[in-house]
Amino acid sequence: MNFSSARQYFYQEIQQPDEHIDLVKAALYIAQEEYPQLDLEEYFNAFETMALELRERLPDSPYPLRIIQSINQYLYNDLGFGGNKADYYDPRNSFLNDVIERRLGIPITLALVYMEVSRRIDFPMLGVGMPGHFLIRPNIAEMEVFVDAFNDGEILFAQDCQERLSQMFQQPVELKPEYLATVSHRQLLARILTNLKFIYLKQQDLEKSLAAVERILLLFPGVSLELRDRGLIYYQLGYYPQAADDLQTYLEKVPDAEDSGAIRRLLAELGR
């Protein structure tokens, strides 16, 4: 499978209604641009096997906290999954195949593994886009329990989340409801791609960073900041007509943006 067909399959998958998007497939299509020979069936089977083994370990009582404890025991103790704290910005932490094989990931990809295994044992969980981190929670109304997939499935309550935020930002943080809002499948995939975008920008791998931005724009067409960033990457790569188109569109969308002066000067240089 080549680069273009992996992108095409990703595009086809995300055209469905959000709740019908298969996160495992979509995440593997993201990885397949990095690993063209990737055998997707191998990883589909890995999830089915994990779910099968986990079912045998579930408690007789259906209490949610006990089920979470069983999942944690299986994923973190038995299989050895864990957060890659030693090399957080390794791009392999964002590729689902690598996370499955290496048992290492970052909050978003470990959360995806946890969610997909949980779904297969009929214990659905939702992604929670807390600022600076990513959590999950059982899809049970009025149950405010959160799981930190990056930290061995640590169980958190709202007060714990507030304390975690205050620690991250090194100042008291008021816990607003939107900080614990659930995310859509598209938002989760965009967060994986955003991680890759910034990793590759830091590494000065502009082509791969561009590929990440392009797929974010497939998920959320016309997002102004992504159009700006794509335009700037195009400019650095020497794709000047494409750069000018994106930067012009960005200014039309947000004419009063803080960086509008710099973008106008760049457009003038490009003959716009």
TrEMBL record:
UniProt cross-references to InterPro entries, sorted A to Z: SirB1_N, TPR-like_helical_dom_sf
Domain of life, per lineage: Bacteria
Record domain Protein SirB1 N-terminal: where: 42-193
PANTHER family per record: F-BOX ONLY PROTEIN 21, SI:DKEY-261L7.2
Homology family: Belongs to the UPF0162 family.
UniProt-recorded name of the protein: Protein SirB1 N-terminal domain-containing protein
Organism, scientific name: Tolypothrix tenuis PCC 7101
